[in-house]
């Protein structure tokens, strides 16, 4: 498996510095948070996009994916959500990213069936354009659809190879799902896995990998046991928790912890 980290852990950091952290600390790739407050976002012009792609190539770092914020199950107009996904797909194509992340985002006033149908309808439409640009849309296990079983209700309706799953291990754990259950649900559609650690279900402040309660050993074990060889991406949520320790000083220990888990699982 290859290791990456998300720029959610280094909010606002210039791309050259992000790439420097990856190369200096032994990470194979980076997931970019594609938000307007970040250096890389859908508002970039053609020249800026070309410069970003060149920067990754020069550094020898892979661009794992773009973490977008489209909410595919949210109440409202389909066209606006589909347009938001298309802008992410365009950016991913221009930068050479294989994946874009979307959230479920179902509303409290929706039934599960309505949220599932809304998400599947939008993802099915967006999948046609994703095919054209050769980028895969990944539905993250999050918010209204936090378990693998929840996500599969949507993905089963979509049934398109360009729409898959992003397994956020915190949310499946918070949803009461065991790693083996999450993997079996998501495996046919799995793009990559986001790892992290927290103190408890009540305190989700990010911690160094291995310092909290999330079942990272079990996650790596089940992935290894099934021969999965994709990406593990550390999503350290520094952007939402200013009191959390800075990510750069944790990167070496985090990589070493994941390497130990992978070695033990092998």
Keywords:
266 residues, alpha/beta
Q: Would you give an account of this structure?
A:
The protein is α/β, with parallel strands linked by helices. The chain is 43% helix and 17% strand. It is built from 9 helices and 8 strands. It has helices at 15-24, 46-59, 78-95, 112-133, 148-158, 169-174, 179-186, 216-225, 251-265, and strands spanning 2-6, 29-33, 62-71, 99-103, 136-140, 163-168, 190-195, 231-234. α3 packs parallel to α4 (112-133). The protein is globular, with a radius of gyration of 17 Å.
Any chance you could write out the topology, listing elements then pairs?
Layout: E1 2-6, H1 15-24, E2 29-33, H2 46-59, E3 62-71, H3 78-95, E4 99-103, H4 112-133, E5 136-140, H5 148-158, E6 163-168, H6 169-174, H7 179-186, E7 190-195, H8 216-225, E8 231-234, H9 251-265
Parallel strand pairs: 1-2, 1-8, 2-3, 3-4, 4-5, 5-6, 6-7, 7-8
Helix pairs in contact: 1-2, 3-4, 4-5, 5-7, 8-9
Could you provide a short overview of the structure?
This protein is of the alpha/beta class and 266 residues long. It has helices at residues 15-24, 46-59, 78-95, 112-133, 148-158, 169-174, 179-186, 216-225, 251-265, and strands spanning 2-6, 29-33, 62-71, 99-103, 136-140, 163-168, 190-195, 231-234.
């Amino acid at each position: 498996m290859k290791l990456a980290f998300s720029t959610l852990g280094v909010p606002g950091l210039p791309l050259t510095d992000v790439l420097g952290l990856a190369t200096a600390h032994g990470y194979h790739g980076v997931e970019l948070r594609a938000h307007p407050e970040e250096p890389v976002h859908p508002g970039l012009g053609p020249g800026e996009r070309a410069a970003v792609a060149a920067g990754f190539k020069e550094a020898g770092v892979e661009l794992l994916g773009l973490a977008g914020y489209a909410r595919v199950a949210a109440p409202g107009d389909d066209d606006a959500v589909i347009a938001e996904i298309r802008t992410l797909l365009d950016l991913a194509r221009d930068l050479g990213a294989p994946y874009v992340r979307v959230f479920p985002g179902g509303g409290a006033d929706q039934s599960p069936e309505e949220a599932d149908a809304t998400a599947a309808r939008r993802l099915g439409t967006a999948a046609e354009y994703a095919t054209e640009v050769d980028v895969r849309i990944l539905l993250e296990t999050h918010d209204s659809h936090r378990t693998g079983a929840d996500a599969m209700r949507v993905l089963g309706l979509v049934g398109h190879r360009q729409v898959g799953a992003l397994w956020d291990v915190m949310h499946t754990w918070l949803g009461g799902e065991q790693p083996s259950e999450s993997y079996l649900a998501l495996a046919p559609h799995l793009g990559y896995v986001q790892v992290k650690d927290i103190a408890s279900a009540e305190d989700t402040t990010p911690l160094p990998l291995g310092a909290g309660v999330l079942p990272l050993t079990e996650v790596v074990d089940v992935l290894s046991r099934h021969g999965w060889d994709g990406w593990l991406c550390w999503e350290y949520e520094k952007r939402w928790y200013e009191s959390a320790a800075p990510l750069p000083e944790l990167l070496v220990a985090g990589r070493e912890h994941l390497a130990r888990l992978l070695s033990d699982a092998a």
